[in-house]
Amino acid sequence: MQQGLTTSPYHEYPARRAQRPGLLKRPQLLFMIALVAVDLTSIWIAFSLGHWLLRRDPNVIIGPIAEFLPLPVIQSFLLFFLFLSQRMYQRRRPIAHLDETYRVVTLTSLSTLLTIALVSLLLRDFTYHRMLIVYSWIFAIGLLTLGRIIHAQIQWQAQSRGIGEDRVLLIGAGEVGQMIIQKIMSNPQLGYRMVGVIDSRGSRSALGVPVLGSFADIPAVIDAYAVDEVIIGLPESSHQEIVGIISLCEREKVGIRVFPDVFQIMASEVTIGELGGLPLLTMRDVALQGWRLTLKRSMDILFSAVGLILLSPFLLLIALLIKLDSPGSVFYVQERMGLDAKPFRMLKFRSMRQDAEQSGPGWTTEDDPRRTKLGSLIRRFNIDELPQLINVLMGDMSLVGPRPERPVYVEQFRQQIPRYMDRHREKAGMTGWAQVNGMRGDTSIVERTKYDLWYIENWSLALDIKIIIRTIVQTIVGRDNNAY
Questions:
Q1: Are residues 156 and 67 in the same domain?
Q2: Is a pLDDT exceeding 60 seen at residue 482?
């Protein structure tokens, strides 16, 4: 076994023990120090800009900047500890800028309020201008967000070049394991480098990554290849098997991540109750209940109505262009399955020839010959989906939710995929959690279902807004690669 380990054609590493998890490598430590410097510098620049802006106002009399130094000093300490407590400096993996911006706004606002409270409590003779606080707060949010985006881009580019990378061992070469390999290889900015796979089925490689042994060989492989992190991709294994694998990994002191069986573990809230003294776990079933349904429907009505009003000239232009581009109707009306698996007629701008489905329904493919010249463009930017705002306003659809499928496909998928029909517990959406995570077009229905179920059981208004913003951004910047 040892001979096989040291002669692998994929990656060769010196036989030394992997670094203990929790001890940062030098590049990772430098990334973290640089991020702290970015945050603290942003606070001081924001304060300086706020003071400069007030000094330029002829109606405001304000002293020199030195008189107000307690404000940025106290806020710098508070912000640092708030960010540290919320793990804002543990960003070795790429995260969505939108998520980070939300946390920056929240924590910066909290640090500003705490700064005012501490200054008022500790320095009772200290006076400050209220607009100085407001300006500094606004500038701080903007500069912290911008600084962290730039830092993230630099860090991810460095990680994609192997700087500060983690050596990863994957346990499991099945369907889930291959999906994990594809994700890692297609996202070098993650800072992961695959050293190999552990699999008990006797295969020699998985997507070009060598199989280095079976479960019994895990400790030797971790030691010989200086593995930093182990990812267990065996969602169908029993708890006993997973625990056994984890114990083998723990002997070598490496980081461990487990890909869960998302069909079985979907709820984010688990509470402990009791039944006559017998402890029971209560798992949330559906997040969209009661007043939340009213809130979501209110947002749907407001956004769809405003969208239709503002976009009406553009929609009329697209309709005219479709009519001029090819013979046939402007709209394409198709039966889809929505809430409680009830059919409804979904509207789209026609992007294909009028006779595109004369041979029966079929998935749209890249470079589909059935598309019209204009159809390729409007599908590329999701313009063909805009008439669905009418479906949203009428209550057949929601802005965000699982994408609706045709009855023929629903009948097929419900027999093949566990919990598939649970998608129909909520209204279908113009966009959804699966779509913004790349699961649209000709992609895995199984994985798409997992994302849909996660959304249904973890809904929040903030999540809907996040999905809408990500949809718009991905469409504009061209990251919606499966939009054909």
A1: yes
A2: no
Shared-domain flag, residues 227 and 336: no
Task: Report the C-alpha gap between 156 and 95 in whole angstroms.
Answer: 10
Residue 442's pLDDT is 65
- For the record, the structure tokens of 26 come out as 């030098």
Domain-terminating residue out of 160, 179, 199: 160
17 found inside a domain: yes
CA separation, residue 268 to residues 86, 257, 271, 449 (Å) = 19, 18, 10, 17
Q: Is the pLDDT of residue 114 over 80?
A: yes
- Taking the CA atoms of the chain, what radius of gyration do you get in angstroms? 27
Q: Which two tokens stand for residue 469?
A: 């913003």
What pLDDT does residue 138 have?
A: 95
Length of the chain: 484
Structure tokens at 394: 């009428």
Contact at 8 Å (CB) between 461 and 299? yes
Residue 248's nearest CA partner among 273, 219, 206 is 219
Nearest to 140 by CA among 98, 101, 88: 101
Is 335 domain-assigned?
yes
Domain span including residue 62? 26-160
pLDDT tops 80 at residue 358: no
- Angstrom CA distances, 375 to 115, 323, 390, 473, stand at 55, 12, 20, 21
Given the DSSP bridges, would you call strands 205-206 and 192-198 parallel, antiparallel or unpaired? Answer: unpaired
Residues 136 and 154 in one domain: yes
Answer yes or no: is 57 within a domain: yes
- State the average pLDDT for the chain: 80
Dump pLDDT digits (tens) for 145-167: 999 999 988 988 888 888 878 88
Taking only the tens place, the pLDDT of each residue in 323-357 is: 888 888 888 898 999 888 889 999 999 888 766 66
Torsion of CA 253, 254, 258, 259, to 10 degrees: -170
Instruction: Calculate the alpha carbon distances from 170 to 218, 248, 349, 409 in Å.
Output: 10, 14, 45, 34
Q: Indicate the number of domains in the chain.
A: 3
Terminal-residue alpha carbon distance, the chain: 48
